[in-house]
Amino acid sequence: MVAVVNDSCIKCKNCVDVCPVGAFHEGDTQVVADPDTCISCGVCISECPANAIAMDDEADPKWVEFNAEKAQEWPSAD
Q1: What residues does each domain of the chain span?
Q2: Burial of residue 46, with CB atoms counted within 10 A of its CB: 0-12 exposed, 13-18 middle, 19 or more buried
Q3: Chain segment 1-26, per-residue pLDDT in tens
Q4: Which residues partner with 26 through β-bridges?
Q5: Which of 28, 39, 55, 77 lies at a C-alpha separation of 20 to 30 Å from 64?
Q6: Is the whole-model pTM more than 0.70?
Q7: Tens digit of pLDDT for each residue in 34-77?
Q8: What does the radius of gyration of the chain's CA atoms come to, in whole angstroms?
Q9: Within a 10 A sphere around the Cβ of 1, how many other Cβ atoms?
Q10: CATH dotted code for 3-72
Q11: Please, what sign has the CA dihedral across residues 38, 42, 48, 53?
């Protein structure tokens, strides 16, 4: 399971600050999570004041797909 951000995101970036692996990135309209980087620790969920983050097994499939698609747009760290 990985973290998924939905459109309730207010771009506060609390998730960015607490993520131990840097899985979150700021997009045009919201922050999104890279499913290939997320380690499923769940720290971000409790830090989100907008309740905009859930694990993928509890998230709307459209947001799972949205986060994965946006993650492909980021440059590789390699």
Answers
A1: 3-72
A2: exposed
A3: 899 999 999 999 999 999 999 999 98
A4: 31
A5: 77
A6: yes
A7: 999 999 999 999 999 999 999 999 999 999 999 999 988 876 54
A8: 11
A9: 13
A10: 3.30.70.20
A11: positive
